[in-house]
Design goal:
Helix content: over 70%
Structural class: mainly alpha
Strand content: under 5%
Number of helices: 8
Keywords: Coiled coil
Number of strands: 0
Distance between the termini: 23 Å
InterPro entries: Toxic_anion-R_TelA
Family: Belongs to the TelA family.
Radius of gyration: 39 Å
Largest sheet: none
Shape: rod-shaped
Number of domains: 1
Pfam families: TelA (PF05816)
């Protein structure tokens, strides 16, 4: 080989042939034997099947990053938070139901209004819960699908490795045997056609090396795709965990606490009713208006006793709202990270495209 030859691409091996499994090396050698560098179509079509799969696959992953958004789920969780807040459990019992007459009428009406509002909001909560469960199931399917895509990407990567290894084997053969033999034949011949064929052959070698380089770029895309898939999977898993927490913990806890509050106030209502009936009966029989006044004051005092329990209910409701707001904040943070990931992916894609255009313009 003379100094006029280009720097052999065989000297820079991306795939270490000695590290290949025997069966993979055999496949690569078989592929190399089918390559005819003198045939332009053979060079053009070399590895194009695996390369197209990688390109299409990378586009599908990028599209998934762009379209995968927790916005709908985040909006649903936000709506859940608003519905819980709108019930205003903390306002139950804050006013003095005995401050007006009739005493029990106002108290019972207050409970009825609360129950009516709760029933309406509960319907919305059930709808939101169903929507969250549907989203959770879809995310679980997506996670399984991404596992399959991850394995498919590994399969594509293995195909590319075989084609790259085969190309390296072919270039090794060309530089060690075919090219020196043709160069020697040209030196011994005075036919200009032989010299032209030799130059054409070197140009085809250059094109094959460029084709091999394109395959290596596709391999890089495939390698980068793997963590992209896992990133999307991780975000989906976080969403599933948060949704499950809302469905299994937050919503049932909220409902339970409302039921407890209603039960407490129903008990108080029944107690006050019984006390009022007893006191009124005694007053009609044995007491005058002064005793009725004192009895009413005593009734008011008895009614004020049960308000201490509502403080616990207020705290639980505040904690519940805080949990939901924290969940929403985490979803927004996840959305921001995915947007950043999308921007980085687009940047990488643009850099690769720019580099490829630069290489083509220099060819």
């Amino acid at each position: 080989m003379t100094s006029n030859n280009p720097v052999p691409a065989k000297d820079v091996q991306l795939i270490k042939l000695e590290n290949l499994k025997p069966q993979d090396l055999e496949k690569a050698t078989q592929i190399a034997s089918t390559v005819d560098i003198k045939d332009s179509q053979s060079v053009i079509q070399y590895g194009i099947g695996a390369q197209n799969k990688i390109s299409e696959f990378a586009d599908s992953i990028l599209s998934s990053v762009k379209t995968k958004d927790a916005g709908d789920i985040g909006n649903t969780l936000s709506e859940l938070g608003l519905k819980v807040k709108s019930l205003k459990v903390e306002k139950i019992g804050t006013s003095n139901p005995l401050s007006k007459i009739p005493v029990l009428g106002n108290f019972v009406n207050s409970i009825k209004r609360f129950i009516s509002r709760y029933e309406k909001i509960s319907t919305h909560i059930e709808r939101i819960s169903n929507e969250l469960d549907t989203a959770r199931m879809q995310l679980i399917k997506d996670i399984a699908m991404l596992d399959a895509l991850y394995e498919k990407n590994l399969s594509y990567l293995m195909d590319l490795d075989l084609y790259i290894a085969a190309g390296q084997i072919k270039l090794q053969q060309v530089y060690d045997n075919e090219l020196p033999a043709m160069e020697q034949a040209v030196k011994e011949s005075n036919d200009p056609a032989d010299a032209q064929r030799f130059q054409d052959y070197k140009q085809m070698i250059h094109r094959f090396e460029k084709k091999l380089h394109d395959l290596k770029l596709s391999r890089t895309i495939s390698i980068q795709t793997a963590p992209q898939i896992r990133l999307i999977q991780n975000n989906d898993q976080l969403l599933v965990e948060k949704i499950q927490s809302s469905i299994l913990n937050t919503i049932p806890l909220w409902k339970n606490q409302v039921v407890i509050a209603l039960s407490i106030f129903r008990q108080q209502s029944a107690l006050e009713l019984q006390k009022t009936i007893t006191q009124t009966t005694n007053e009609l029989i044995s007491k005058n208006s002064e005793m009725l006044k004192e009895s009413s004051i005593e009734t008011a005092r008895e009614n004020e006793r049960g308000i201490v329990e509502i403080e616990t209910l207020k705290k639980v409701n505040d904690d519940l709202i805080s949990t939901i707001e924290e969940t929403i904040a985490i979803q927004k943070e996840g959305k921001t990270k995915r947007i950043q990931a999308e921007q980085e992916l687009v940047k990488i894609e643009q850099e690769l495209k720019s580099k490829l255009k630069a290489i083509k313009s220099q060819a």
